[in-house]
Specification:
It is a single chain. This protein is an alpha+beta fold. The chain has a two-stranded antiparallel ribbon. A hairpin with a 2-residue loop joins β1 and β2. α1 packs antiparallel against α2.
Length: 77
């Protein structure tokens, strides 16, 4: 396989993985940005929102995606 075909294959697998994770989170009732552990402070005329748990989840997904990308890179070389 050429470089471009391998790249499209890997990107497709990564998108399938991300779609599966988002689908699973929605089925479990978790909405990104409104997870337990996300910090939200609301007062009159002021609102502070820091999605701590969502950030950690996205970081884990990106790390897992890169790991899968490297795994498939070794497997399909």
């Amino acid at each position: 396989m050429g470089f471009l075909e391998r790249l499209f294959f890997k990107v497709g697998l990564l998108l399938i993985f991300v779609a599966f994770v988002v689908f699973a989170l929605r089925k479990l009732g978790m909405q990104p940005g409104k997870l337990p552990g996300d910090i939200r402070i609301s007062k009159e005329g002021f609102e502070f929102w820091f999605p701590l748990t969502t950030s950690l989840l996205i970081s884990g997904l990106i790390t897992g995606g890169i790991w899968l990308f490297r795994l498939f890179d070794r497997f399909f070389k």
